[in-house]
Amino acid sequence: MRNAEATRERILEAAMAEFSAHGIAGARVDRIAKNADCNKNMIYIYFENKEMLFTTILQKNLTRVYEEITFTPDDLPGYAVRVFDFAMSNPDLMRLMAWFSLEQKADSPVERGQVHDQKVKSLTEAQNSGQVGAAFPPEFILTTIMTIATAWTAANPFGPLLDPKSIKNVEPLRDAISRVVRLISLEGLQN
C-alpha cells in the first residue's frame, strides 16, 4: 500500500509541473509517467484519464488554498495580502489556474463554488452590519480583491511583464494592495 501511495504522489507532483507548464491540451501523459518514474498505465489506473488527473490536482490545490487562506470579511486588506503572499509563493498553482480558465476542459470543482458562495454570504453579512461598505456588490468586491492580489504572479500578463522591477521588492506591493482594498471595502460606509 505504501508503494501505491508513493507512486500516486509522484504522479501528482509530476502532473502538477506538466499541467502548469503546458495546460491540459499540451500536457503529455508520457512525460508525466517518465517524470514520476512510473508506468504510463499506472496513471490511467489511478486517474482514468488526463482530464481526471488535472481535476484531481486542481481540487487538491484549491483545498489547500481554502485551508491556508482564511477569508476575513472584517479584514479584507489582510485577506488580500494573504492571497498575494500565497499567489507569489505558488507560481505553478497560478499557472494551473490560468490554464484552467483558458481551456475550460475540466469541470470546476464543486467545492470552489461552495467556498465562493460562502464568502459572498459572509461579505453580505459584513455589509449589512456596517463592517464593509455597500457601494459595491459583494461578488464585485471578491473578484476585485482576487484580481488585485494576483496581478503580479507569473500567470498575469500585466504585472510582472510590464513592471518587472516591482516584484524584486514586494513590500510596496503588499502595502498598495492593502490600501486599495481598504478603500474599496470602506466605500459607502457612513462616517
TrEMBL record:
Residues 28-47 bind DNA. Residues 5-65 form the HTH tetR-type domain. This is TetR family transcriptional regulator. PROSITE patterns: HTH_TETR_2 (PS50977). Pfam families: TetR_C_21, TetR_N. It comes from the Bacteria. It comes from Paenibacillus tianjinensis. The keyword Cell cycle does not apply. The keyword DNA-binding applies. Keywords: DNA-binding.
